[in-house]
């Protein structure tokens, strides 16, 4: 399905990004892993290269425009083009709105939101040269439409990604570039076996999500056969945000 497709994934050294990278490699894709964590990025790339030598790691700070430009250039120079972009990089630092500084606000905005626009813009410059365009998927969050205390800036970035998604889908449509986003719910990236029954039962699916659930969603949205799907936000949360909960 993705044989020899060129896939760029930000925030790819661990968690959801790492799993998405592995799954694309398993499908025969040529993968460019990008992350600010160079040590972990090289480790992850080495793991992937044991199965597929067509994978590279490019150290990237998505807060920096020149890093993003360099990332996309390296991808195109290494593999000839860019077919798919997964905007996965992000940070989450709960802070009271009374204590949140402008510097902290800007750091998260630049990491989670501005990077999505810049990465999409730069990747699209290569995608539009392809006869079949390309596909962009960005990670939003169910926190775009529900909240816990002290998550204002994170919620703001994720809500904005949903709006940015349909705006980009409109702007890039003439170049045959699909743009969608995913809102993951509870995706456990740690020790899954330590979860309680009560954790699983918060979901209609009767289980907490796993990173591979998000990889499958990426496959759906980036499959060339699904060219009628663009501009959407796909919620992948086991039904958690639809479950009505009353306090006893």
Automatic annotation (TrEMBL):
| Key word Oxidoreductase present | yes
**SUPFAM superfamilies in the record, alphabetically?**
NAD(P)-binding Rossmann-fold domains
Q: Which UniProt keywords apply?
A: Oxidoreductase
Q: Gene3D superfamilies attached here?
A: NAD(P)-binding Rossmann-like Domain
* One record GO biological process: bile acid metabolic process
Check the record and name the InterPro entries matching this protein: NAD(P)-bd_dom_sf (IPR036291), Sc_DH/Rdtase_CS (IPR020904), SDR_fam (IPR002347)
Q: Which is an annotated GO molecular function term of this record? A: oxidoreductase activity
Q: Which family does it belong to?
A: Belongs to the short-chain dehydrogenases/reductases (SDR) family.
Protein name in UniProt: NAD(P)-dependent dehydrogenase (Short-subunit alcohol dehydrogenase family)
Species of origin reads Ureibacillus acetophenoni
């Amino acid at each position: 399905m993705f044989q020899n497709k060129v896939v760029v994934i930000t925030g790819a050294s661990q968690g959801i990004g790492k799993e998405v990278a592995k799954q694309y490699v398993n499908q025969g894709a040529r993968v460019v892993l990008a992350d600010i964590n160079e040590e972990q990025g090289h480790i992850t790339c080495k793991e992937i290269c044991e199965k597929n030598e067509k994978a590279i790691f490019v150290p990237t700070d998505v807060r920096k425009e020149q890093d993003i430009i360099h990332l996309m250039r390296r991808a195109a120079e290494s593999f000839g083009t860019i077919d798919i972009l997964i905007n996965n990089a992000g940070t989450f630092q709960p802070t009271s709105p009374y204590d949140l500084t402008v510097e902290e606000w800007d750091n998260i905005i630049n990491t989670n939101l501005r990077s999505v626009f810049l990465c999409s813009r730069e990747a699209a410059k290569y995608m539009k040269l392809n006869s079949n365009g390309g596909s962009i998927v960005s990670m939003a969050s169910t926190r775009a439409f529900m909240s816990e205390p002290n998550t204002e800036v994170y919620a703001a970035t994720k809500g904005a990604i949903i709006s940015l998604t349909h705006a980009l889908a409109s702007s890039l449509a003439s170049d045959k570039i699909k743009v969608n986003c995913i809102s993951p719910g509870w995706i456990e990236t740690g020790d899954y076996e330590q979860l309680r029954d009560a954790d699983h039962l918060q979901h209609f699916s009767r289980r907490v999500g796993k990173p591979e659930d998000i990889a499958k969603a990426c496959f759906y949205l980036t499959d060339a056969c699904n060219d009628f799907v663009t501009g959407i936000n796909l919620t992948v949360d086991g039904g958690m945000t639809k479950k009505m909960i009353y306090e006893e």
